[in-house]
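Q: Give me a protein?
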Amino acid sequence: MRRGTETNSQLVGRVRAFTGDDRLIKTLLLSALAPTVPALHNLTASRLAALNHGSVTSPIPGGEVGQVARKVEGWAAQFNEIKYVKGDDPGVGLELEGIDVDSIIENARQAGADNMGTRKNLIRTLLYKEFGVVETNQYGGDRFDFTWRGSKRSLEVIFGNVRDKVELDDEVFKPADPTSWRLIVDYPFDEGEFTPAYDRNRVQRMISEGFEARTLCWVPASLAAERIQDLRRLVTIDYALHGQRFDSLARDLNPGDRERARQTLSGQRDVLAGKLIGTLRAAYGLTTKHESEVVPDFDDHLLSLSEGLRPRLLSGASLHDALASLAEQMLKCQFPGHPDFDPDRAGAASVVKPAEARIVLDYIRKAVETSDGRVEVEKAHRITVRRIANPLLLGEMHEAAFVAGSHWRQHFHQRIAQDKVNGDVLVTDLLRWIDEPQQRGLDRLVANLVLACFAEQTDRSWIQYGGPVTPELTQIRDDMKLREEKLPDEDVWVKARQRAMDIFGHNPPVARRARLAALFARTLSDDARKYRDAAHDLVARLETYAEPLGLDVRAGDGRLHTARRAADLLDGLGSHHGKLDIIDQLATADLGGPTQRTGKSIKSATAVADALRGARWDTFSLIKGLREPYQSKAVQIFADLRKAAVADELTLPLGPALSRAGTAAADLLREATQDPTPPPPPPPPPPGDVVVHSVPVSVMEEKLQELQSYAQELVAKNPHATVEITLKVIHKS
């Protein structure tokens, strides 16, 4: 064009665009010819745009880089030599020595790679990957799993031609799960002269005929002819690269070129797929439609078969985010009253877990057992309680304290009155009333938390199969009921609590509530089973040894009487099953004395019975028959033992007394059974009057003669004295 000549504005625009493209291509060519030049080494879209500043213009500042990237991506989809690597700043380049892959593509095309079925499968594969849809191949459709307001949800997804009654009959437009939603995603192309308007017409006709379902149809605009050619090429390349098929299709190439051809086609497949995904976003209404990409004459992308759903697309979003937005709109339409447990949009991390629900329930219990319904919350639990309890209307979590609310108590009481429910309240009714007046659609765990909190606030007990149960949150079933329970009288409760502390060492709760009363009664029953056998064993042992212990079996006080009353108390606690009867039994039982004595007798029964069983009863029997000088000592031993035996265990422990008595009795018996002590020897005779001779038996006869003579002489000298001669064997050989 010459300066000063009038030109067509459209022609000027095309020439300017061509010039810009020409400069970009030449820059790519230079980068291939002179790769060592720093400015041309490892080109990216931003560097390519900077090297050709002014060649590509954009109304949006900085938009030139995006335009350059899209241009190179398009060229790479058409020409094997152009290279495009996706990224935040895509890599671009040109390869001078290419491999002719067109023959491979042609071989694949002749093998039937490109047909309507393979195009549909490829589009579905691309879309499902972008959507995050799990392909299940089941009647209920494929599945899109997501988290909505802190609960796990799933959406049924069907991929098919909306207008085609053979491919999708009317029944397919109904969700397999009547409580769920179904999304039908149409193809961005059709056969013959059919356009998206035909899909819209079928849905509108179904609505006019009264068809109602939780179903949304997502109908895209048709792909432009040029993009259809890209799709066909992508289908063919994908076919060629599948499995072991490539070697057969590339049989005319040598092994080295064959591998390079595989890499070239793989890169081209990735570029075509990336480009097609961008086109699909436009076709499904997420980005601006351009004639070169899609046919821009259709905008009714979302067709709802549910009267209440008025969906809107999330403009500019990714396919995944757009689908997630549609799923959220569906559930918001279905469950307008669902609380939001995910204010920070943490996704799956916000799902309410059983442990978190138990934490909230625990603070509800603590709060309702206080006079003002207020309880301090541990710092580690405050976020959890605030995130769950506040939106669920269970109460209000303030900075550090939780205050129980009254919403559900008032709501359920109102519904009970309206439905004229007398007696037990069914779980199924409570679950139904949760969704009135607005559907909430709570997960079962969260719904069970609401029911459990109502039970705590109204002091009701869980009933199943006619008897009381204490279910965990995850164990609340539809066949259960909630029952208002009678409570012990105030004075009975106070006395039973005090006796439980004195006898068993428990610290029962102060609040007089059904759940706490049930726990209290269960604890008492456990105590009865724990101590009853030992208490009866103690009574039997005391009665067996009553005589040596000096016990009066008819006495109205003392150790044996206390032991009998303790055994009777445990029998009474163990024989009752109702919590009121058990608590009343503890409060009114005749203990025969102070409660501390009874408690000591019960807790020491095993030790005392063992001591009685192991006492030295044989030794006691032996010392009982001793005579003086030992009898008085035996009497004292028995007196000390009987003093301890008659007294109660709290005053004088019997075990140590039995041990002391046994030791003393053994010592006394040992003393009484030793040999008598020989009498003291007579005083020694005067010196010279005693003669001692020790002689062997062999000379005894001779010595006896000498002894006789000595005796006669001694008598003669002492005619009036007494003479004693002693012969004793002092050694036996």
User: Anything to note?
Assistant: The two ends are 161 Å apart (CA to CA). The chain has 26 helices and 14 strands.
